[in-house]
Design a protein that fits this description.
Length: 199
Amino acid sequence: MHRSLGRDRALTLVETLVVTAIIGVLAGLLFPTFAKARDGAKRASCMNQLRQLGMAMQMYTADHGELAPWLSAVCPTYCPDASVFVCPSDPAAGRHDASAYMEGATRLPSGVSYTYLPNWKYAWELGWWGRPPHYGRGKWRDSTPLAMCHWHWGKRWDPELDAQAWGKDPKGWVVLLEAGGSVRRIRAEQPVSEFDPTA
């Protein structure tokens, strides 16, 4: 009986190390790609949630003749799913210290990740919105920024930061909900004062 060569042959130590090294290199190349894909999926989910909030805000405005006093005011009548208010990239899941334009969990127990720009003093100073309680129609009407998500570059909310910027040392994407219900993403490095949706 003849035995074929190599059938019972095991891998040598060197061959095993080479295979292990190749697998390690491939994993090193693929893991960043998977992370980017995961971040992109979270951003897409966030943008979809902001679109839903935009539709809810439009229904609220149609019924009441003006914008809601805060973002979560549309829940539950116009947006029954409270999870829509929490960005999947938000590490605190919407439970932040409140400020004039970030609700956190002050009004909606499940939390709110998005900032409501009609309550931001720099939005008033830049003429985007009038001061509450009557915000007006917005500087660019339907294109005026209404809500913002900065969790695609930011990692924690600083209620003391109330500067004319998208945040402290921004690098990445800011997702904006416009008054007309459209959602856009812009670079966080762009100064707020230079923002112009018509450009």
